[in-house]
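Encode chain A's predicted structure.
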Amino acid sequence: MKAPSHGRGTSSGKGHRSTPQEKTDMPKSGQTGDKGSFKSQPRRWIEKLTQEKKNKLKKQQRLQQKMQICVKEKLPTTSSKGTKSSLMSTGTTHKTISTGVKKSRGHSKLSDEIRAAVSSTATTATATAMAGAATVPQKASKKKRKDSKIQKEGTELTGTDPQGTAEELAEVEELEKRLNQQVSHWTLSSKPERMQEGSVGNACQDISLSICSYLEACIFAGDIERAHHFLLSQHRVMSRRKHLNTGVYNIMMRVWAKKIGRMFILLEEAGLKPNLGSYFAALEQYTCGTQTVRFCISRCLSQMEEDGLSVDDLFNQCVFRQDERDMLLKAIRIVKPEYQPSLNMHTSQFSSLLVQDFYTERADHTYPKLDFTQEDLQERFKRQLSVEQACTITIDSVEAAKPVTENMAKMQRIQWQKILLQALRESKMILAKSNTRDYRLNLYPYLCLLEDKEYVDIMIQSVANLPPSGESLKILARDLGNRVFTKYCVRQKHQNQTVEKLGSIYNAYTDLLAKDTKIGFIKPHPILTQMQQEAMETKLTFDSYVMPMLCPPVPWTSVKFGAYLLTPTKLMRTVDGATQHEELLEKCQNLHAIYDSLNQLGNCAWKINKPLLDIIISIFNDRGSDKLDIPPPLSEAPKIPHFNPQDPTYTASEKAHMKRQVINAKKKCSEMHSLRMDALYKLSIANHMRDEIFWFPHNMDFRGRTYPCPPYFNHLGSDVTRAILMFAEGKLLGPKGLDWLKIHLVNLTGLKKRSSLQGRLEYANTIMEDILDSADNPLNGRKWWMNADEPWQALACCMEIANAVRSPDPTQFISYFPVHQDGSCNGLQHYAALGRDVIGATSVNLMPCDVPQDVYSGVAQQVEELRARDAESGLKIAQVLEGFISRKVVKQTVMTVVYGVTRYGGRLQIEKRLKEIDEFPKEFVWDASHYLVRQVFNALKEMFTGTREIQDWLTESARLISKSGHTVEWVTPLGLPIIQPYHRTRNQVLKSTMQHINLKISHDTKERPDTVKQKNAFPPNFIHSLDSTHMMLTSLYCYSSGLTFVSVHDCFWTHALTVDTMNKVCREQFVALHSQPILQELSNFLLQKYFMLITCVFSQFLIIGHLFQSLHFHSTFFISLTIITA
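Encoded structure for chain A:
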C-alpha cells in the first residue's frame, strides 16, 4: 500500500493554527522539515518483522554507516532546525505529516524505515516512544527530548561517539523487539475487533460517537478540509487520540482518495489495525490495470489474508454507496479476473430446535399471498416513499373548528418562518466566521446538513407541540435532534442512490407478496398559549414515521435494515446512546426466526371501523366522557386559583391550603392537556386513514417483546384505539365464527369469569336484545355496552354480531373483526410451567378442568379466609375489611408480583383500589393496604410454591453477577441475546448558551452495574423474554397455517373463523417451549459465562435448575383464553 507522491515539499492545504500544547506533540499539517534534512521519506506499512531479521549483524553495520552519513549531512542545518525537530510527537514520526513524499525505491521494510527515522539523533527518542512509550507522562517526554537535544549537540562537536552508537543500537534492538511483539499480536489475532476497536467497554465510547458524527456532518456538508483538520487535531494529542478508533479514520479514507496512504500511516501510529472498511476504502481507489496498481491490490489482499479477512467479507459486511460495490469488484478483478462474490446467507443451520421443523417443512414453500395485486403494492410503495421523503405529513384535525379570531390572524406561519429564517442565517454566519479551535466540536456543520427552511419548519413544529405547562429542555433538544437526524438520513440515502436500489428490491419483494404472479424547562409564552386555545389550528403536522405505512413494511433481513423505506429504525429499541444491545445482535449469526416473526406481524393489513370512529369523534367534540375514556377539552379543566402570598389577611394555614389547591389545579390541567392531545392525535390519524389500507412495521425491546413502530395509533393502544381497528382482509365466519364473536363479547364485558365456554355463549344468547339495541342506538338506546370493562370494543363487537345475524347466512358472512384470546395471568403460567407446579398450573388454566380457573378470584378467596381467621382473633383491621376484599382489589398486585413488584409497590396498588370504594372508611386505608399486601404475598406463596423459589434463584444469581462487576446476560430459546442495560448513573453536563443541561446516564458500560436494578429486574425480564419467545413461535406456526395473526404481548388476535386453529397452535408451542430444559440451559449459560467469577456460589443454585427440569411435565395443558377444555 504505497501512496502516490505529489512532488516535494508541497502542502495539502493551508496550514491551521495549533495551540502550544498541540505543537509539543506534532507540527502543523502541511509543514515539512528543512529541504536538506531528509533525503527520502518512504511511507510505512505494517509488515511482519520476523521475516526481515535474517542477519542482525549486517543490519547493525548498515545502521552505523547510515548514522555516520546522516550526521555529516545534517551538521550545517542542525542548529537552525533543532527546535522544529524537537517538536515531534510521542508516537508520531516526521513522515506522518509530510505530503511531499518522494517515491521509495523497491519495497522498503518497516524495520529499515524505522532505522531511517532513527538516523537523526534528534528524533531517536521520538521513534522509541512510537513503539512503546505512548503512555509516558508529558513531563517525561519533554525530558527525553531535552536529553536527546543535548546528546545531539555533543555529537556535533565531537563527531560520532562509539558509546552513543552502542546506546542507539540497544535502543533500536529494544524498539524492534517491541514492534515484533506488536505485529505478532496483530498477525495472530483472528478477530478484526482488536485493541480499542469494537470494545463494548470502551471508556471513550460517547466521545468516539460524537467524533464520528462530527466528521460525517462535515463531509456531508462538503467541508472536507474542516473534517481533515479536526481529525489531525484529535490525532496529534495523545489525550485525545485515545478517543479514536479505526472507524473514525475510515470515514476520511472513503472521501479522500489522494491521501488514503496518509490515513493508513495515522492509523498505524494510533496503534490501530485496519479493518474491512479500511481495506475497502483502499481497494476502491484502484480501477486501472497498471503494474503499480496490480502490486498495490495484491499486497492489500495479502495483508487482509494475514489479518484473517477474506474478499467475500468485503461484500458481505461492508455497506456500499452509489457505485462503490462495482468499483470494488472492478479493482479485485484486476488481479482475480474470475472472481465472483459469494454471499453468506446462513440459512442452512438453525440454532434453536424449536424452529428447525418450521423451516424444514417450509423449505420449498412460497410466501402466503396478500390480497393485493403486484401493481397495487408497487403503487402503495410509491405513495409511502413520497411520505417518507417529505419526512413530515400534515393532516386534518378532528377537533371541531373554532372561529377565526384576531389572534388567529397573528398566528401566521409565514411571518414566523421569515423571522426565524433570518435569525438562523445570522447565527450561521457568526458560527462560520468564528475562530474556533480545530480540535473542538462546532455546531456549524450540523446546521449545514439541511436547507435553512427545513430547520425552521422543525422549530415551528416543535413549538406547536409544546404543552401550555412547558416541556423539559432535554426532551425538546432530543426531539429537535431526532428530527434533524431523520431528515439527514433520508437526504443521505438520496445522495448515496439508496432510494433507486430500494425501489428495485421492493419490486422483487412485491412479487412474493402479491396475489397475482407479478434539562431545563422550555415553556411557551402565555400569549402564545392563549392564542392557541382561542383558535386551535385545523391542521396537525407529524413526522412521517408517526403514521402507519401505506405499503407492506420492508422485511427485516439484518440488524440495521427493515421496517420503513427510508426512515432509520432500530431492530431493538434501546435508550438513546446505549450500544451494547446492537453490538450483541451484530455478533449473532442466526436471527432468522426473530426477523420472520417481526415480518409476519408487520405484514398484517388493517383498516378503520368508520361507523365507530364517527361516534367517537362526535363525543370527543362534545366535551368528551370520562366514563367512556374520551378526555374532555381544556375548557373543562378546573380554574387555577390566584392569590397574593403577601396578603396579610391570609393565615399561614390558609396560604398553605391555597398553595396546595394551585398545585393540584395545575397538575390536573397538565394531565387533561396530555390526555386530550393524545386522543386528538390518535383520532386525527385514524380519520386521515379512514379510507386507506395500512400496515404497522414492528420492532422489539431488549427483552424481545414486540411493538408497532408508529407511536400514537396502533393496536397496542387503549380501548378506543383497538375498537376502531379491523383486519383489512375478511374471512367467512364459518360454522363456529358467530359463537366466537358472542363469547368474545362476553369476555369484553368482564362478566362470567368463572363460566365455561358454553355458559358464556348461553349468556350472550340471553342478552341479544341488548346487543342489537347497542348496535342500532349506541348513544340513544339502552346503552348496555357502556357498562362493559372495554366499552368501545364491546360496541364494535355488538355491531359485528348484528351485521352477522341479520345476513342471509351467518356462516357465509365476511368478517373483518379481530377476536382476542388473552392469557390467564401469563407470567404465573410461565413460572408454574418452569417449576412443574401442578397446583399453580391448575389455578392459571394449564391443567384441564371442567370450568376455567380464575387466579385472581382464588387469591381473593384465600385472603378472605385469612382475614376471617384474624377477625375472629380480634384483629381490628381484619374486622374493618369485612366485605371489601374482592377480585378487583387484589388483581393488579397478583398480576404484577410475577414481574417483580415489591411489597411497597403492591401496597400502593391496593391503597388505590381501596380509595376507589366509596363505602370504605378512608382513615383505615393505610393500615388496610399494609395488611392486605402481606396476605396477598402469603397466599401467592402457598399457591405457587415453585414460583418464589425460582424468583429467589434468579434474583440471587443476578446479585452475584452484578457484584462481580458484570451485567446479566442470557439467550432466549430462539437464540436472541439479551443484556440488562442497568448501570450506575453518572451525570454529564452539556453546556449551552441558554443554560447547562445535566444528563443522567444509566447505560454507560464503563460504569459498574446497578446491583439493585440488576437483581430486581432479572426475574421479570427473564419471564418477559419467555413470553416473547412463545408469541414468536405462535406467530411463525400460525403463519405456516395460513392464519392472520397479531399480538398484544400475551393477547393474540385472529379472525373468528380461525380461533380454534390459533388456540391449538398456541397450546402446542407452549408445550414445545417448556419441553426444553430452560432453567438448566440458563444455569449452564451463566456458569459458562461467569465461571471464573462466582463458580463456588453458583454451584448451590445450579441444583435448583436441574431439580425443576427433572420433574414430570404434564403435556395436556395449554395457554391462551381463560377457558379450559380437555
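The first strand starts at residue 392 and ends at 396.
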